[in-house]
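Appendix B. Raw example, untouched.
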Amino acid sequence: MSSNFQKICDLLPSLDRGELEQVRTRCAYQLQHKTAKQTIVDQQDWLLEGVLAELQFRGIYTSRNQLQIKNPRSFAGYTTKATAVRALLEHAAPNLTSLQKMSLGRVSAHELFEFLTSWKDEDGVSRPVTLNLMLESVHLVPNALDRAFPGYMASQMLGLIVRYEE
């Protein structure tokens, strides 16, 4: 342990609750911006996390235990599409932190859901949005985002919708 770390540890018990909360916030901020090592979030599919969070928010999907891959070939199709979409989003929103990528995944999934619910069949009825439909339609995320934020992707300003400057 470094001497600075030991000094901080020795000082912690003397801090009040508000000061401890400020220390926690600063630590979380510093951890978010440390890019020397790849984090678990970098290895995760942040777009899939966004889809699952959006469906859970809508009450369509309630538990990660429900995610069952019945046909690995169809999930491989999702994986191929999602990889291309994530690369496009990372190009349209350069230099995002892991946390910002997770936020972009949630915004992307929300806009995809809205985009899919706007579709009507010949009778004017919307098709119900399900996990399967979201995964099959992941390639439409750029269209959905461009509809919600016109010009942001083309100008590489998509990151502005998830950026927070301290």
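End of appendix B.
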